[in-house]
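Thread title: Can someone regenerate the structure for this chain?

I was given the following input by a collaborator and told the matching structure tokens would be attached. They weren't. Posting the sequence so someone can regenerate them.
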Amino acid sequence: MEPEPLAKFHTQVYRNGRIIIPKNERDYFGIDQHDIVELIIRKIENGKIVGRGWFIAQLTVRGVLTIPLGLRKELDISDGDFVEVLLLGFIRIEDVIGTEGLKIMKALKANEYRIIGEDDEKRLLSLLARGAYNILFIRQ
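Best answer:
Regenerated them for you:
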């Protein structure tokens, strides 16, 4: 008996190669934005598989991810096409980098910044001088 993927579904390719993992699949497995998925994508024409590729991607909001441009070109996948997707596995990013790491990642993606006062500057420089600085400022 051949091994089965975690899930198999069909989806439309949106602008710039974006596809969506259906909400019911994400809910069932507990997959959320920022998590990393491993996929096989199949291009199907007239009911036959005419090409396939493997890739990993990070989910954004509402289960959106992007098929790599090179893979889209090699399989001749265009916006508006439908593809078959096999979900092979996933990694919950928080399990790998922890809660603090996830906060840092979200801050980076959001281009987070703060206007600081003199006291904040002194505190940050003090942490640096003690060798204790590890992006603690985002915890406030």
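The beta strands are 7-12, 18-20, 36-45, 48-58, 64-66, 82-91.
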